[in-house]
Amino acid sequence: MSFTVAIDGPAAAGKGTISRGVAAHFGFAHLDTGLLYRVVGAKMLDGMDPVEAARTLTASDLDRDGLRSAAAGQAASKVAVNAEVRAALVDFQRAFARRAGGAVLDGRDIGTVICPQAEVKLFVTASAEVRAMRRFRELVAAGEDVSPDQILADVRARDDRDMNRATAPLKPADDAVTLDTSEMDIATALAAAIAEIDSRRPATA
Ligand code: CDP
Ligand code: CDP
Predict the structure, then answer these.
(1) Is residue 147 part of a domain?
(2) Which residues bind ATP (predicted)?
(3) What is the spatial distance between Cα 84 and Cα 54, in angstroms, rounded to a whole number?
(4) Disulfide check for 102: which of 4, 28, 53, 76 has CB 3.0–4.6 Å away?
(5) Closest by CA position to 94, among listed 117, 122, 114, 80
(6) ipTM of the modeled complex
(7) 188 is in an annotated binding site
(8) Which residues form the pocket of ligand 2, taking CB atoms under 6 Å from any ligand atom?
(9) pLDDT one-digit tens code per residue, 57-67
(10) Is residue 205 part of a domain?
């Protein structure tokens, strides 16, 4: 039996951290769907047609170096406005969601478009300033030469593109539970997510 947890929200809200914790706690498989768009964005920067990159994407592409860079993130949010790119990535994500033993997928449109039937939908968010500071610390730790102002502008530009695109814009599903992590540490946010999932799991599972 499949059991799907959909975790959506803006950049650096804590989706990945919560998803990994949820996957470890329940033994679910985890797919960071942002990586799919990052792969397509990185291939576009290499000169490949993004629709072709999306159609030929395989699981091994997700191991590519440099996908976490700020440049790959920006390129990802640009290719993500393309409806043909998005359509080409749907089957890969839905097949993952149906895995036996449960799956957690995080992204922007998992609860709204990819898995509207997901048993649990969380919308993880935080203020743009908090998210920019989290992402800034991460990029500095990874050795990138960036400024806090530049990262805040980057987060805002991506929020704007993600929320205002015509196809699968970032927004909470009607039945999503919102988790604002602006003032939550990781342990508190993870505990809230686990409690929400527990409340929706079949008693026999
Ligand atoms: O996946 P997403 O871009 O939404 O965010 P993430 O990669 O899970 O988290 C971005 C950064 O914020 C990471 O360095 C996390 O450790 C940190 N974080 C935090 O400080 N407090 C939280 N409640 C959640 C994440
Ligand atoms: O880690 P962070 O939240 O900064 O970004 P990400 O999840 O890796 O996603 C990078 C970009 O891919 C986002 O800004 C979105 O434009 C796009 N994306 C999307 O459109 N749909 C998804 N399900 C996941 C990501």
Answers:
(1) yes
(2) 9-17
(3) 9
(4) 28
(5) 114
(6) 0.96
(7) no
(8) 11-12, 33-34, 37-38, 73, 76-77, 80, 107-109, 158, 162
(9) 999 999 999 99
(10) no
Please check whether residue 196 lies inside any domain of the structure. yes
CA of 77 to the centre of ligand 2 (A): 6
**125: CATH:** 3.40.50.300
Look at residue 88 in the predicted model and tell me its pLDDT. 98
Q: Is the pLDDT of residue 123 over 80?
A: yes
Task: Look up residue 164 and give its amino acid.
Answer: N
Pocket-testing residue among 33, 122, 134, 146, ligand 2, by greatest number of atoms within 8 A of Cβ: 33
How far apart CA 190 and CA 194 sit, in angstroms, is 6
pTM of the model: 0.95
Domain count across the chain = 1
Tell me the residue range of the domain where 173 lies: 4-200
As a residue count, the chain comes to 205
78 lines ligand 1 (CB under 6 A): no
Name the closest-CA residue to atom 25, ligand 1: 14
Whether 6 lines ligand 1, by a CB cut-off of 6 Å, is: no
* Per-residue pLDDT tens digits for 142-183: 999 999 999 999 999 999 999 999 999 999 999 999 999 999
Residue with tokens 């650096």: 12
110: Cβ contacts below 8 Å, ≥ 6 apart: 6, 7, 8, 33, 93, 118, 121
Residue 62 within a domain: yes
